[in-house]
């Protein structure tokens, strides 16, 4: 009975770029050629090759699935932005990069104003629509090198990577105006929302906890002023 494999099929499977030409590989090829000439070992070799191909496919599929699950674990389900876990990881990696390459950037902490009253007046479905709209707007407003996240509740964050302070402040103000200009509809209701924002700069010597605390303080100062005092706190 034939095995579906010619005498040279098994050896040719190993006669490609995966197996560079060197003495050890050549001896391996010769052993394979000898195995191909024996009907019994040829059949076993054919089965082994098929199993190896199947195993490789399963490994590729499993790796892709793991990466998909990791992405989901770092994504906010409601807005599609990074969640707190994902943003913490991004922030940590960028601070390490800043230390290594002497980079600098800014962290923006954003909190929606009177969001609880939206939930109380229009319901949580409307509140979710507001969060989605804000998340979508922030996602559209950042550069490809920046990151946007929903940290939880009505709190959002932006990481301006390798950003000029003046330009980042201008972009932050534009974001606040853009949020205020959003027209959000839910069940015949037209809802508007405003936000408070605090900025904190970072460099290679910045501690992550200190960066978040400074941005948080700046955001609450802006909130207390009624949105008239968006502040930037600098490192050091």
Automatic annotation (TrEMBL):
Coiled coil: none annotated. Residues 103-235 form the GGDEF domain. InterPro entries: Diguanylate_Cyclase, GGDEF_dom, Nucleotide_cyclase, Rev_trsase/Diguanyl_cyclase. GO terms for molecular function: diguanylate cyclase activity. GO terms for cellular component: plasma membrane. Pfam families: GGDEF (PF00990). Residues 1-23 are annotated as: Disordered. One of its GO terms (biological process) is negative regulation of bacterial-type flagellum-dependent cell motility. Its EC number is 2.7.7.65. It is an enzyme of class 2 (transferase). It catalyses: 2 GTP = 3',3'-c-di-GMP + 2 diphosphate. PROSITE patterns: GGDEF. It comes from the Bacteria. PANTHER family: DIGUANYLATE CYCLASE DGCM-RELATED, REGULATORY COMPONENTS OF SENSORY TRANSDUCTION SYSTEM. This is diguanylate cyclase. The lineage of its organism: Bacteria, Pseudomonadati, Pseudomonadota, Alphaproteobacteria, Hyphomicrobiales.
